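worker-3 :: picked Monooxygenase
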Amino acid sequence: MAQRGVRRAVVIGGGIAGPVLGMFLRRIGVEVTIFEARAAPAEQEGAFLGIAPNGMNVLAELGIAGVVEARGAPCAGMRFENARGRRVGVIDQRDAARRFGAGLVMIRRGALHAALAEEAARRGVAIRYGARLEDVDASDPREVVARLRGGDEARGDVLIGCDGFRSRTRVSALPGAPEPGYTGLIDFGGFARCPGAPVEPGWNVMVFGRRAFFGAFGAPGGEVWWFHNSGEPAPEPGRAAPPGAPGGAATSEALRERILAQHEGDPGWIGDVVRATPEVLGPWLLHDILTMPRWHDGRVCLIGDAAHATTPHAGQGASLAMEDGMLLARCLRDEPEPEQAFAAFERLRRPRVEAIVRQARRQGSNKAVSGPVAGWLRDRALPLFLRIGAAAQARVHAYRIDWEERAA
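worker-3 :: tokens ->
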């Protein structure tokens, strides 16, 4: 049963955190409306991601793990290679269900967004597309108002910002919060059919190249899902992407050639996969938020990347967002007033998420090297780094939220 102070929730952002939060809030009797800036579900947007066992366990609590698994593919593990194609380590995930209660699932981002939105709507969560937040008015201590582009307003007992690392909620409601920091790495991706690529179905192959990092997943039906990370100087003020990044076929070809040049001398199959890709996706400049003084103010709270943006290097962005949604709903269920619930949520979440953001930043620093000597040193240290990373990953995957436990 919802607490007397929380009957209506305004949720900004309909990606991952928003629908998961909405479904848990409906479970405790809260009326939820999600306001999403995109004009329609983004089923073709982005590349792909992994939902780790800890994230899949959140979906299992909602009863939708099978729905998401059906749109993705189980991942057996990760194999790591150096620029010469020599294997330097393996993280085997085939016994993850036994160890952690669920396995690792790879899924296209658009497919995940669609699955979560459909399930949220089926459970009574209202989703309004084309509703872009302009400002948050929290001047009334009894409610909070979201002012939308075009003059519309939405009122609720609480407002939750789930609108990503560029969060408009954060800018409006917590104006002193730090901006996300650029990590110095850039991301591209794509989907290809390349029968000769040595990427076994169900496995990720990760290559620490001479100048850049390349990851590929063997997806069902013979597709190869891939991503590329490389170092990129901070963009000049006012420029959102590196030279040549705006859309258009010519730009895509220029980006393809740029990626191929950065993998010259690396295993030849990487070039084959990139050439076989109909459209190169990206670029995405990778940002994170190592820490923020606070995630909430009054009746407004941030979750997911809006509060603790992380890079994809730890494979935890989606799963942390899901955990956030579950735990915040539990806190709103158990605490008598919103501000107390938000304070409990932040106290419980901050140590875990900030440790993972730092871990992701460290892992990303190994992906781009400044020259042959740096690459040689990195390759010598990789087996040790991978063993340490595998142990840290296991601890992260083992984390479980007990819905029945009361917020402390």
